[in-house]
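Deviations from the work plan: none for this task. Representative record:
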Amino acid sequence: MKRIETALILCGSPKREQSSSREFGSYLARRLEAAGVRAAVRSTAPMETLMADVRGADLLVLSFPLYADGIPARLKEALMQIVADNQGAKFCAALVQCGFLESRHNDTAIEMCRLFAKEAGFTWLGGLGRGAGGMLAGKPLEQAPQPLRATREALDRAAVLLAQGEPFTDEIIGVFRQAPLPRWLYSVAADLGFLLQLLSNGQLLSVFRKPYRQSRSE
Amino acid sequence: MKTLILNGCNRSDQYAMGLLEQLITVLGEGDAVPQIIDLEMLRIADCNGCFGCWTRTPGECVIRDDAPAVTAQLAYADRIIFFCPVVFGGFAPQLKRVLERSISLLLPFMRLYHGELHHPPRYKREYELCSVGILNQTDPEVAACFRERTRRLALNFNGSRFSWGTLVRGEILDSSRLRAMVAVREAL
């Protein structure tokens, strides 16, 4: 067991506000602080200071939304730079969330994070994948709706393990994998959310629009 | 049949360009003369996660750069070949960025597909995906991740089958292997 003194939560969401990834990451940072770890949250920008910040951390946690089934391109570029920077021994973990209900959409991205850690020479402590991440709607995890409470409590336990340089347990990973709502209910709620946005943008009747036409040669 | 190659390798990468040339030859043996898009030449910004392509300008990204023109090409492709270096078991950022900027090919709604929720296709097409990746060194874990990466993307692209393959940088180029990579389709 190695005591972690400093942690960096690297948030891979491009959103400046209403970012569930940032909220998951910020909550974890607060729990790590409570466990005696100096923790900071930052995004990939500005890239100039990123390498120094990563170098100063014993633990690097990647917190990001699933983008087109993978790690967001900008974050991936940052990870390539971290590998090239040859940062030495460090612990690494990941928190991934997606807009689909099922957590398994995140599995490939978590595996990519593990492969990044392997390439960088970091000790991999595991990845937690949350489905229905949009339910957080960019609010602090302390204010999470009831179905995400178990996730928050699991993150509390995860922080204690990370502070000791210990990997996530199957129990914690399992809580993250549980669907917080029945599929039909999530599907209806997600569709309704988009319909309301379309309505408020005056685009409801254009939802099925196909702006690109097939050329005659195709 | 429209076959599109998204080239995520740089033109200065001689090994990759040799491979790309062979890939074009192999694909051209059938009835599909491929169209190539060199992503290095394009100006494509990061997706900002606004979902404007679903709710503000349905079907089109709100960022005005070269990405919408690529999406327009993808919309009516039958077969899309992703060609790039493999990075952590996935696509290189240059190519990944295009995928992120092309979610307008899907509709915002949820539907059950292969036992899980996915977005339905906007253009009601069944895309067939193929990935050809270049590894820096032999690594079965990275190759396995690259295969799974392609399979998952095919699921989200309303595909029913996919093909894939990896080559290790410096490996002698072999047309028959390349042919097998693009010809052997796996079911999802």
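DSSP finds seven helices and five strands in chain A.
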